[in-house]
């Protein structure tokens, strides 16, 4: 009788135990407890920090800062106590409880190192796994999954050393590498002829640059001008030759002091040359841009009215009109804190709508982005500090950030055509220069390195780059030139399914077990996370949560989304389905 029970016990594999995989496992156990069901669970995670994974690894450099305030991590709620399969699993505190977070509204926001959150996530996983480890029906497997095969109603999971059979699979594997673009391909070929030329196609882990940071002479080009560039910049310059020092705690004004001379030059470059825009200094200033609860509810209602029922829309006006209305009200309420103007609410709404239609749109109320790169950063820093008049584009970006969680919830799995989905995602990506901005201190460090003649912004906007014997020669529109022997690519791959080059995803695509919702986006999934398969007559029980489902779900890059309703929906659906059998 016991043998028959083991044969019939359902087996689930969760592939990828980072933050999403961790929260998926927790919610799975909560739902299994409610249904009084037991299953066999296989957990696949190659990182030695389950729960944290590679992105939040506890041994990474202190140079990797989060771009979300510690205050905002209130969204990482605690885990309740769980009783599953006669195992008692203790409750685990929220991030704020665990870190004993406390902050006055007028104090500057803090942005912890990623490893701090990683420590929390890893401890949270270990507290769970320690209890589960007492059961033979749960297993943690530190192996890379190479492929999945469908055999009748079962799924075979193949690793380099073993094969596992299960009934259902949840993929929560996060960031996947993609095929190199033409530029990186040509640069890779260029490095093969000389060991003196170095190209790094991925900025992480930063420790791979350890041999560069203390070189006496080093000229390094950094492809990209975003958050990863700042991480790389910070890692390379906190070295044996110098470090940063904040000289004004109220503004985070910073100097880079040299303990001894080093001939280090960092040359970042990007297509548009526009910097990341820092977030407001503290909660008090951030609240200038916060919509009311009534406005958020109205915004949610307007988006859901279309995304849940209507697939005939041909523009994103349903989203932008309520957003523009909120932004216009907030900008008017800024009064003398904002740049002076004579526009009324209706006129401001029109400007916001025009902004959403054209990335090149400019207006007299927008920041003049033709300024020299150094001065442009200063302007944005002063706005973030609340010390200079707020421009409308800065206001738009901060209001968008406050609306993002509602947008992500209301628009995921939208019943609109794929072009509208792509347009919304493209607009969200465009907004991230503001909404995903770094701490003020990061941008003050950029300025400090320019002052110290280490960071060179002369080539920041789309320079001409020529491959030469010494490496890569940069030339700007003014005729200035500089040559680097090293280039670090800090542009992270977009989750475009058809470009992913990992064996697991390529194999699933080749066998028609997954398909993209759009050629430029990720895997098509239903609301409960399960893949919509093209394979006729087959219904593989494969679910996907996170970055690879971009398009079906939006907001996949936000850490708080790893602890959101999409994961809860999957767990409820999975347990509901096995309870019916």
UniProtKB/TrEMBL annotation:
UniProt-listed Pfam families: NAD_binding_9
Protein name: FAD-NAD(P)-binding protein
Organism for this UniProt entry: Winogradskyella epiphytica
InterPro entries listed in its UniProt record: FAD/NAD-bd_sf, HpyO/CreE_NAD-binding, L-asp_N-monooxygenase_NS-form
Domain FAD-dependent urate hydroxylase HpyO/Asp monooxygenase CreE-like FAD/NAD(P)-binding: 13-176
């Amino acid at each position: 009788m016991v043998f028959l029970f083991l044969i019939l016990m359902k087996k689930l594999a969760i592939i990828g135990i980072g933050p999403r995989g961790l929260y998926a496992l927790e919610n799975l156990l909560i739902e299994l407890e409610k249904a009084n069901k037991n299953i066999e669970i296989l957990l696949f995670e190659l990182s030695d920090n389950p729960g944290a994974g590679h992105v939040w690894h506890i041994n990474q450099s202190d140079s990797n800062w989060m771009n979300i305030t510690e205050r905002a991590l209130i969204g990482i709620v605690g885990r309740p106590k769980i009783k599953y399969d006669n195992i008692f699993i203790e409750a685990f505190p929220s991030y704020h409880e665990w870190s004993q977070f406390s902050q006055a509204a007028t104090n500057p926001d803090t942005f912890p190192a990623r490893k701090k959150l990683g420590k929390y996530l890893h401890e949270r996983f270990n507290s769970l796994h320690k209890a589960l480890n007492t059961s033979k029906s749960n297993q943690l497997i530190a192996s890379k999954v190479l492929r999945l095969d469908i055999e009748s109603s079962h799924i075979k999971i193949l690793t380099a050393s073993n094969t596992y059979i299960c009934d259902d699979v949840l993929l929560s594997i996060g960031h996947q590498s993609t095929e190199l673009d033409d530029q990186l391909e040509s640069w890779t070929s260029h490095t093969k002829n000389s060991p003196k030329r170095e190209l790094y196609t991925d900025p992480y882990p930063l420790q791979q640059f350890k041999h560069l940071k203390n070189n006496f002479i080093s000229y390094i080009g950094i492809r990209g001008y975003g958050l990863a560039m700042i991480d790389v910049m910070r890692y390379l310059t906190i070295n044996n030759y110098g470090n940063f020092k904040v000289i004004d705690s109220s503004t985070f004004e910073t100097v880079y002091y040299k303990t001894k001379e080093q001939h280090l030059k960092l040359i970042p470059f990007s297509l548009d040359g526009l910097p990341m825009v820092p977030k407001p200094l503290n909660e008090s200033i951030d609240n200038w841009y916060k919509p009311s609860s009534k406005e958020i509810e109205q915004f949610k209602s307007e988006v859901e009215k279309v995304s849940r029922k209507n697939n005939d829309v041909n523009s994103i006006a349903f989203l932008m009109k309520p957003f523009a209305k909120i932004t216009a009200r907030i900008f008017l309420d800024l009064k003398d804190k904002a740049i002076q103007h004579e526009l009324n609410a209706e006129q401001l709404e029109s400007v916001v709508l025009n902004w959403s239609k054209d990335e090149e749109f400019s207006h007299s109320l927008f920041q003049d982005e033709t300024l020299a790169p150094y001065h442009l950063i200063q302007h944005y820093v002063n706005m973030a500090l609340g010390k200079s008049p707020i421009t409308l584009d800065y206001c738009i970006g901060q209001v968008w950030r406050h609306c993002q969680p509602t947008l992500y919830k209301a628009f995921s799995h939208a019943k609109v055509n794929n072009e509208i989905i792509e347009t919304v995602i493209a607009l969200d990506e465009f907004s991230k220069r503001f909404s995903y901005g770094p701490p003020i201190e990061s941008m003050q460090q950029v300025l400090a390195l320019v002052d110290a003649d280490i960071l060179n912004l002369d080539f920041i906007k789309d320079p001409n780059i020529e491959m030469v014997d010494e490496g890569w020669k940069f030339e700007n529109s003014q005729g200035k030139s500089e040559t680097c022997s090293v280039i670090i690519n800090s542009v992270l791959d977009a989750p475009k399914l058809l470009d992913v080059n990992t064996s697991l995803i390529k194999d699933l695509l080749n066998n028609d077990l997954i398909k993209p919702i759009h050629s430029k986006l990720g895997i098509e999934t239903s609301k409960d996370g399960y893949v919509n398969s093209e394979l006729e007559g087959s219904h593989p029980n494969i679910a996907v949560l996170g970055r690879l489902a971009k398009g079906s779900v939006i907001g996949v890059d936000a850490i708080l989304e790893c602890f959101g309703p999409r994961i809860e929906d999957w767990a409820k659906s999975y347990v509901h389905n096995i309870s019916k059998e």
